Amino acid sequence: MKYAIILPCLAVAALAACTKQAELPKTPEEVVKAYQAYYDQNRFEEAKLLSTAAEQKRLVELAKMMEEQSPDSTQMTTVFLSIKCRTKGDSAFCDCRCKDQYETYTTEFVLLRRKNNQWRIDAPKEERYEYNNEDIEGVVDTLFDLLDVEQQQQQ
């Protein structure tokens, strides 16, 4: 008789535990740390929960690239030496000093506040290089000089 009461209670408790969603981190600092932990371990689906639509697209592409690699070779361990976040309206800018297996470096995370007041990591802006004509002409000249030297050596 005891088991008839205990077993249904355990089943209800287990069901409640399974259906309860994990609470998302609240502050920009917490979001950065959680996102980086997921990213380091190639857990891109979880990282997408903390990302804007633009960053989610980037993570999908990254996940495709990582599928071709050995899982052990792509996993990192990032330690945050410092995080300093400043907010301006619905944006947050977090300057971080980090250390992984290979180096110590600084990076910036940009977060945007979205629905339900949740902070989300935004995709980094693409670096654009602007070249002037003199730079391009200099590179072309160097390439032609190298070709001339190579042709002279072959003769």
From TrEMBL:
It comes from Haliscomenobacter hydrossis (strain ATCC 27775 / DSM 1100 / LMG 10767 / O). It comes from the Bacteria. This is Lipoprotein. The lineage of its organism: Bacteria, Pseudomonadati, Bacteroidota, Saprospiria, Saprospirales. Residues 1-22 form the signal peptide. Keywords: Signal.
